[in-house]
Amino acid sequence: KAKEQGRNNYQFYTPLMSAQSALLLKLENALHRALERRELSLYYQPQIKISTGEVTAMEALLRWEVPEVGFISPIKLFSQGQKTDVILQISQWILQTACEQNLAWQELGLPSIPISINLSNREFEQQNLVENVARVLQKTGLDPQWLELEITETILRKNLKSARQVFQDFYNLGVRLALDDFGSGFSSIGYFKLFPFRTVKIHQSFIRDLRGASQEMALISALLTLGKGFNLRVVAEGVETSSQLELLKSLQCEEVQGYVYTRPLKSAEATQFLTKQLSLTFGQNQ
Ligand code: C2E
Ligand code: MG
Ligand code: MG
Ligand code: MG
């Protein structure tokens, strides 16, 4: 069969290649195509200070839209794509695009805020990660303080040995570090002491089940106290309803991210959101 298909297709049909690596090769090709054909885009979701409605940061979230197929979940993309090298090219594109976007907002005269991007496991294990980030910052001209890097506890736990040095280098570079999805894994409080985080994001599973006098309330309350003690910005993720928002307010939670304010937005819509929010909060202060 392979012979009939001609020489170029030979590698797809060799019996030595397992079905799994064939799938991986397919994914790798698809990802290369995605980059070339601009199927990738970044969406942006604001983090908001409840008391004023101010946007305190924007999180960049990858969207991959395949023609005739639709959107492919970034979780899937990053978990399966880890084994391919093209994932690093995609991460590079994300970093660069997010920095350029933040700079574009600053050039429009919007208040400076950090843009946060998620680091994948593969990216975190890259030897020259910090140098690479430094190079992109220099190339784009974005001040390091306006870049925040989100790392999940899972990635941190996998790389505990190397993480100390990586964090120190990032800290010296002047970028912000955020602990993402806190509460989804082992949730070691020791991480706050060991690593120079500026932000901790409470995993959305706690918010989903939020009710008065629940265990989730106690947990979030404890986390908020802890966050204050360590001088961290605490952001509740996945806030969908106004009753969740009210409960969070009652716990003195200051910042949230979630559908209750907006879903992740395309670049132009995110710009509009920032502009509108600015005029609203400006009006409030008059
Ligand atoms: P994450 O970093 O924890 O991002 C938050 C996720 O929650 C996003 O899903 C966002 O769309 C979703 N979300 C926001 N508000 C709400 C809400 O009110 N309710 C619910 N149910 N969900 C909400 P998304 O964009 O599908 O991303 C899923 C995960 O994929 C991210 O979780 C992150 O781990 C990963 N990811 C997404 N974009 C990137 C990226 O550019 N790079 C890397 N390395 N990972 C990414
Ligand atoms: Mg995140
Ligand atoms: Mg998260
Ligand atoms: Mg997540």
Automatic annotation (TrEMBL):
Transmembrane segments: none annotated. This is Diguanylate cyclase/phosphodiesterase with PAS/PAC sensor(S). Residues 24-278 form the EAL domain. Coiled coil: none annotated. It comes from the Bacteria.
